[in-house]
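3'(2'),5'-bisphosphate nucleotidase
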Amino acid sequence: MPINCWRLTAGVPYVSGNGRVIHRFTSNHVGSVLFSHHQNSAKHIFSVPKFNQSYSSSIIEEQKNLGVASAEPEIFYKELDVAVRAVQMACSLCQRVQDSLISKSKDQVHSKDDSSPVTIADWSVQAAISWLLSESFGRKNVSIVAEEDVKKLSKADASGLLAAVVNTVNECLAEAPRFGFQGPDMALGTSDVLEAISHCNSSGGPTGRFWTLDPVDGTLGFVRGDQYAIALALIEDGEVVLGVLGCPNYPMRKEWLSYHHRCHRIKTRLTPPTSDSWHQGLVTYALKGSGRAWMQPLLHANKKFVWPNSARPVCVSSIDDPALATFCEPVEKANSSHSFTAGLAHTMGLRKQPLRVYSMVKYAAIARGDAEIFMKFARAGYKEKIWDHAAGVVIIQEAGGVVTDAGGHPLDFSKGIYLECLDRGVIASAGAKLHDKIIRAVDASWDSSSL
């Protein structure tokens, strides 16, 4: 654990019997995020439609005598609880589909109109999370900006693909009780699944509340058995208020990490698939303004999700010397300039090889101190989408890091589905001192770039 993680060992929220948010001083637990709506009873928990409360009473019994009163805001804990559980479910879905892709065939990989890849997992995760959010908070109260649509699934020759998506969604939702949800009364039909995907049609904007979802970020990594992420964030009045990143191939233990081989190959060579020591995959999350970010392992098969699910705090590295820093950049050259980042690295004195990682796993790597810098400078004409950054930004910020554009301005999530008015690129770093050095290097090098 990085040396500056001490500040994360205090103030873990849980809910007491009278509905007050309490902090438990611990280094390896995060409390329940469910709220009492009865002031005098610990057994009556804030209820949302079809949200299974079977685990909540045991949590409160375990924690009822713990903690110190806190003034930390109580809002968004319910949303975070649902979001973490939904992403945990989505990770389980993706692991099954990826295993099928790796061990059997690639016939589940398709191309969208822009030639980018899409799989059964992309549509299935979007449908499942859309359904879970709608059931938890009421469909009319849920607005979602997401990457996928139903154009390809609705084509006449896509009946087999659509049937596979429907089956995958229902397999996922059948596991809902393990994660604290009440599943559907009967299996979803084709129209139900298409409706759930289509419900993710919000265009975002500066006012109101909406979710943003990238069901499988880093699809190339996904189909190659490498890193990918499920990214879910909640935005209110243009500000990201919570973020959840599911990283199914990112191990809890840093010493198991390798950036040069596919994660499933490492796991197969070094430990049996059933070994608890592997802890393949994690979910990391944060609430804006909490000053804390967390990660927890993915739920093992046949086990029930119970907070805190072995959650532990994460925080950024304390390294501020570029010579000692590790920087991340996208694997794909199509929408980023490796040559410019290489020039910046040389200018700043970065000695380590770049960490090229698919997807928003890069944000998770910085948030937990595995790397110190993420730089992305898109080629002319490419526009960054909000779902590619929202969840990761709030997680890094609450873990103690900094994320801005290359001009030092906060990323603006209030302009719709794109990060409009972005100054050159996106920079994330482990701290303000390091961040300032990067921005000054960009300013000094930009005029000589071809971007």
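thats it. The first helix runs from residue 56 to 63. Residues 6-49, 53-73, 259-270, 272-278 have pLDDT under 50 and may be disordered. bye
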